Amino acid sequence: xxxxxELTVKVGDKPVSKLNGHLAxxxxxxxxQLENLKTLHAELHQKFSELKxxxxxxxxxxxxxxxxxxxxxxxxQDNWNFEKNEDMxxxxxxxxxxxxxxxxxxxxxxxxxxxxxxxxxxxxxxx
Length: 127
Ligand SMILES: [Zn+2]
Known about the structure:
Radius of gyration: 15 Å
Largest sheet: 2 strands, antiparallel
Number of domains: 1
Number of helices: 6
Helix content: 40-55%
Shape: globular
Strand content: 5-15%
Strand order of the largest sheet: 1-2
Bound molecules: zinc ion
Structural class: mainly alpha
Distance between the termini: 43 Å
Oligomer: single chain
């Protein structure tokens, strides 16, 4: 079992989130994988914060951002010992910058469906 400290994601010295310790045990996540996951979560947190500073994105910037978040999610699945499956990605709509319909996207996890909003600064460029 991992300790609270081992599961805490930090940016600099600041704790920003915590990984699910039970899931880590169930998935057989190693210490190295846990460190990788913490790095990936910190990276995600920083991407979210950086985007907060921007009011508008060009289509090109939105696509680049979208791809970066997707790559982080794939790396996370890999380190959680889950199969890499884009249909299970959820961080793109948990992004505080995203205004796409949250619950609809939660409900459609595992399917090919995604719900985008025309006023989301990231995903309005995606359809
Ligand atoms: Zn969105």
